[in-house]
Amino acid sequence: MPKLESITLISIFLRDYLPRDKDANHLPALRQLTYDCIPPSFLDHAWNNFMKLTCANLTSVILDSCLPGDSLQKELDLLSEYCTVLDKLVIYLRSWLELKSHLVLPPVSYLGLHSKAAKGPHFHYQALVSALVTLTAPKLRIVRLLHACAEEELRESLSSFAAEDRACLVSCGFSLEDSRGRVLLS
Q1: What is the spatial distance between Cα 89 and Cα 60, in angstroms, rounded to a whole number?
Q2: Fewest beta carbons less than 10 Å away: which of 116, 123, 138, 173?
């Protein structure tokens, strides 16, 4: 599989995917990784070794996270450590409440976010904004919401947020966009 550029892994079958030779990179052309995190998480020796050997050239990761929000930082830390050229990160969350404040992202310029909750109450969007304004992500330029319902709901919620919250979001250094790339707040 030396020419494989994209792979999708499912955590419950992870051990089936991992090569038996644990000291070689069998996917040198790999650029995109899609994986889910179903409890218990990948955070074990085999997953760490796979990341270390295989993920140095990844430019794009799609993470379908079913983990509690506090566990997300551990996944982000792994990506930061082993995916040194990563530029695009997409995270599917159970709800906006899973995106915790003060997350430290890998050095990506693009962050796509999707909530699996079809509709969220106002406080979900307040939690989303609180998490976004506290991100540590110096290279981040675009945060794109990948859920059409979320775009409209966030637009409606933004008007009721405190002016300070809206000002913090505008001054974060990245643009907050809808799924079509239109700026939601300027």
Answers
A1: 6
A2: 138
